[in-house]
Each structure stands twice: as C-alpha cells, then as structure tokens.
Amino acid sequence: MKKLLMSVVLGLSLVSSLVYADDWKPYDKNGNVLRTDRDATGKNAVVSTARYEASKIGLDILENGGNAIDAAVGVGFALGVCEPQSSGIGGGGFMIVRFAKTGETKFIDFREIAPKGANPDMWDVDKKGEVISDDKEFGGKSIGVPGSVKGFLYVLEKYGNLDRKAVIQPAIDLANNGYRVSAIMNMDMKNQMNNILKYPATAKIYLKNGKPYNVGDLLKNPDLAKTMEKIVKDGEKAFYEGEVAEAIVKATVAAKGKMTLEDLKNYKIKISDPVKGTYRGYEIYTAAPPSSGGAHIIQILNILENYDMKNIPAGSARYYHLLSESMKMAFADRAKFMGDTDFIKIPLNGVINKEYAKTLKNKIVETKSQEYTEGDPWKYESNETTHYSIIDKEGNIVAVTFTVNGVFASGVVADGTGILLNNEMDDFDTGHDKANSIQEYKKPLSSMSPTIILKDGKPVASLGGLGAQKIITGITQVIIQMVDYDKDIQEAINFPRIHDAYGELTYEGRIDKNVIDQLQKMGHKVKNGGEWLEYPCIQGVTIKDGVLRGGADPRRDGKALGF
C-alpha cells in the first residue's frame, strides 16, 4: 500500500476521503481558540502544518502524483499566504532531505544573510549594548536578504516530480480567493498594529480600514498572487532580479535599511550534512549551523540520557527540574560558541559529544536550581561527524522549517509585490567580536530545527516548530515524551511544557500548582506563561506499526489531515 506522510516550523483513520470539511476552523463561533481536533491518522497519507489550508494543499499535491519535495514546496508557498505573520517568501529557512534509494541525508540552508555594508555600528546602542530604538526589530535595518524562493525552487527542480505551476498554483489561488482570519492571527494583528500602520503597503493588506481583521473575516493578497505567478513563469529570476527585486530593495532602503540588487542576485543556498546524534537507540538528524537548534536539542537529550527518565514521573517536579537545568547549560554554550561556520570556528562536535554531556550532568544538583556559565566543549571536539515534514511512497523524507522571524516580521511589505520582508537581522548579537556579531553576507544564528528521527535506519518521526529559542526546548520535550513515555505524537505535543534559557522558568498554567511550589523551593525563578504557551508551536508526524499519525499544536492554528 502506498504510504505518504507529511508534517509541517516547520503526520482517525481516513481511507478514501477527508474526514474534515473545508470549513474546519481552529476557533469557535465566539472567536475563541479550540484546543482539540488537531490530529489525524491515515493509511495512505498524513499532512500536518501550521494552517488547515496548507495541510489541504499538501495533501492534494501528494494525491495528484507529487512526491515529498513537491508537497513541501507547495506547503511552503501556501503558508506564506495564510500564515504570513510567521512565514513566507520574504524570509528564509532550513530543509533536511533523506533519500530512500541511497540513504543519503542532506541539509539545505536557505537562511537569510546580512546585506552588503551591514556591521555592528548600524544600530545605536546604550552603555549596556542594548539597541536604543526598535531598528533592530522593525523597519529596513532589520531586513536580511531572503532565501526561501531560491531554496524551494532548487529542491523542486532537482528532486520534484511536478512543475512549478502544479506546485505553486494552489497557493496563488489561495491568495486570490482568500482565507479566514483565525483567533491567533487576529491577536497577532492587534499586537503588531502600530508597526503595521507605519507602512501603508503593509496596512493595505493586513488591516481593514486601519483596524485588525475580525476573526472569520476573509483576507486576500492579490499582489502576492501576481508575484507567485511571475515565479511560476520565470523561476527564481522573477524574485531575485527584475521588478520584484527592485521593489524589495526600494522598500528596504526607504525604511532606512541596507540592500542592493547585487545582494539579491548573488544570494546562494548552501548544501551540507545535517547534525546527527542518538537518543536511546534512536538516530536524530537535525539542523546544522547557522542553526544552533539541532546541536542543542542533541546536547539536552545527551544530558538527560544519563537519567532513567521513564521512571521519573512525567510532569513531576524532578522531571521539570532536570529539564530546566539541562536547558540552562545548553543555552550557556549557545550564547558563547554558536554562529555561522562560514565566518567562525565552533566546537560543534564537542557540544554534541556524549562524554561532554556526562560532565554537564555531573554539575546538576537534584535538589537545587543553579546558574551556569559555558562549559568547555573544545576538549571533546573531533573531526567526526531539523516546521513541516514529509515522507512519500518511495520513502524519501523532507523536513522544513522556514520563517520571517518575528510576528509580522519587519513590518515592511515591498509595495506591489505582497511580500512581507523578514526581520532576521534581529537575530544577530549587538557589539563586535562575538560569535554571532553581524558582518555583511553573514547568516544570523537561528534556533530553527527541522528534525528527522530514525530507528534501525527506518523513519519513525519527523517534527519541527516555530517559536525562536523555544523551538529547541519544545522539540526536545516532545521527543522525550515519545521516546521515554511512549506517548503518541499528539499527546507528546499537548503535554505541558516549560522553557528555561537564562534562569527564568516559564511554565504552562496546566502544570500542577504543587509541582510549581516544589520548583520554587528548589530556587527556580518561575513565570506563569498562561494555560498554553503561545510558543513553541510544534507539528510532527510518526510511523508506528504501519500507521501514519500526524500531530498539530493546539497552541496556535495547526491541523493534521489524512486519507
């Protein structure tokens, strides 16, 4: 039997038709977010993405002769339409592809780069090194050279079965016909309204008479549809040269940023090997630098592998304490060592070394929260050496995470194109001589972590998510729930999470109050992030006993579909 599996930051048994009608919504009649009815299983195919519309498009592509790569590209363009506040062709990302015939796994890096002339002095900072204005987060100085179009078209042309029109046309139709604004998107519009109002081309699309769209309103983007039609006709040149490129440069410069036509024309993707680790016999393939996410997911798992997690009650104070301490040590290393390996040398193999993880485990005190500085992974350095995901009928696997960075990104839409431009420059550190300091053509450090998991050489799961640094801790917790506690993908995604990077443990209010009280007695500084943390938003798929299962995060708008 054919088996097609897709999970989108990027898997109910359906046999011959979709269970869910085209009017499925992640909110009720009063505009409140619904936290149920997010997962799906299937005998032939499963798709899980951050929006129902994108999941449907991905599934349709697979049903109509497309392979995993075709579906991944189609979903990418679709998410840029219906989830524009988080992703789109004005941004960049990472992709992992594993080829069934050869067993080869490749990492495709289409992360944004700093434009020509970018340097640490482009932002005004105070004595503490903090940027005085919001130039680093919004406006032209926050915009990097986007890579999504080049990355998507490269893999489509090299590995896809279908042509550009077959894959991109559904997204064009979605942009022309419109989609319904969700409760989450309405909230994002309200939160970013002041920034959107600064740019008329952006406000024209994402505000209605100067106000956020209401939940359930129809939102169209015909300018973006026209841009995608140009890409269908002329390929990547339609984006990186000509009218669209000129509009991107004009909008960036008008918003006080730096970018040239040469920056766009000369943009290149990078092909390398993914970071690989293991956890209790499972092989973990995940994102390589300039993502720090993959390395630190493996690092945290390596630390926790030294504990008998399955006999530590999930959700207990000890469970969250060990997670928190492991997270803090990983983020201490991240802040010190990680960056773009085309510009600096980093101790990647040391960070993911299991012996190094044992030294970190030995620092943990079971009854006390501690602060940590970076370790010394250089001692363990050697020369040895992943949102949304898809597995097609041939066994090829694709895992993708891409973004425009912050909610509604730079706030800048290139007039006439419908393209919302990223604010990835915000991911650089301020100041000079840091691993992640800004340089022209350098890629900022990322936490995006598209991840593929194998067991005995066969795919068992693929997952990824959105949510900045919380991606790292979110994916790690989902993996632990699946491997150590035998939870299915939806149960693992739903399980209450924490996040602790630099000494503040943010927790979901669904965690038992007695557990939080115990953590405070251990010295943890805690913060209630609400019943459900808004981020990270994890989507994943699994294959177990021949059943394809997709899980989608109820923290935002995710939905899995199958047949």
UniProtKB/TrEMBL annotation:
Signal peptide span: 1-21
EC number per UniProt: 2.3.2.2, 3.4.19.13
Reactions catalysed according to its record: an S-substituted glutathione + H2O = an S-substituted L-cysteinylglycine + L-glutamate; glutathione + H2O = L-cysteinylglycine + L-glutamate; an N-terminal (5-L-glutamyl)-[peptide] + an alpha-amino acid = 5-L-glutamyl amino acid + an N-terminal L-alpha-aminoacyl-[peptide]
Post-translational modification: Cleaved by autocatalysis into a large and a small subunit.
UniProt-annotated binding residues for L-glutamate: 111, 403-405, 427, 446-447, 468
SUPFAM superfamilies listed in its UniProt record: N-terminal nucleophile aminohydrolases (Ntn hydrolases)
Record's keyword terms, sorted: Acyltransferase, Glutathione biosynthesis, Hydrolase, Signal, Transferase, Zymogen
Active site: 385
The keyword Transport is assigned to this record: no
InterPro entries: GGT_bact, GGT_lsub, GGT_peptidase, GGT_ssub_C, Ntn_hydrolases_N
Gene Ontology BP, a term: glutathione catabolic process
Pathway(s) annotated for this protein in UniProt: Sulfur metabolism; glutathione metabolism
Pfam families: G_glu_transpept (PF01019)
Highest taxon of source: Bacteria
GO MF annotations, alphabetized: glutathione hydrolase activity; leukotriene C4 gamma-glutamyl transferase activity
Family, as annotated: Belongs to the gamma-glutamyltransferase family.
NCBIfam families cross-referenced by the UniProt entry: g_glut_trans
Subunit structure as annotated in this protein's UniProt entry: This enzyme consists of two polypeptide chains, which are synthesized in precursor form from a single polypeptide.
UniProt-recorded name of the protein: Glutathione hydrolase proenzyme
Species whose genome carries this gene: Fusobacterium pseudoperiodonticum
Origin organism lineage: Bacteria, Fusobacteriati, Fusobacteriota, Fusobacteriia, Fusobacteriales
